[in-house]
Amino acid sequence: MAKFLYVYHGSGKMPTSEAERKAMTDAWTGWFGKLGSAVVDPGNPVGMSKTVLPGGKIENNGGSNPTGGYSIIEAKDIDDAAEKAKGCPMLAMPNCNVEIAPIINMMA
User: Fold this and answer.
1) Out of the domains of life, which is the source (predicted)?
2) Among candidates 52, 62, 53, 58, which has minimal Cα distance to 9?
3) How many CB atoms lie within 10 A of CB 71?
4) pLDDT band for position 60 (50/70/90)?
5) Quick one: residue 13, left, alpha or beta (phi over 0 = left, psi -120 to 50 = alpha)?
6) Residues 6+ apart with CB under 8 A from 74
7) SS3 readout for the chain
8) Would you state the pLDDT for residue 18?
9) Which residues lie closer than 8 Å to 58 by C-beta, 6 or more apart?
């Protein structure tokens, strides 16, 4: 099985109430449960990023498609990884998506 990086993008906001946090946690836990052993690393949300551009200019806003988090999943190929991503809770939020990229093991 190959490993794939899921990069979660969009303007998803962290919930502010305890009930919203529980609902979000339950949604992610349920999805990871359905994926089972395919979940190599469930990952984490990430904070606002900085982008270093050619010439050293730095943007502080995360760009036009900010990263919200990541996971690492095993799948037989990128199409299988894309199918697995269809149930991601991130997709329930407006303007959010999951970018999928194969992890190429260069250090083996």
Assistant:
1) Bacteria
2) 62
3) 23
4) confident
5) beta
6) 1, 2, 3, 4, 37, 38, 39, 40
7) CEEEEEEEECCCCCCCCHHHHHHHHHHHHHHHHHHHHHEEEEEEECCCCCEECHHHCEECCCCCCCEEEEEEEEECCHHHHHHHHCCCHHHHCCCCEEEEEECCCCCC
8) 93
9) 50, 51, 52
pLDDT for 108 equals 65
Check residues 90 and 75 and name the one with the higher pLDDT: 75
Q: Which of 19, 70, 23, 76 is nearest to 46 (CA)?
A: 70
State both tokens at 22.
Answer: 């529980």
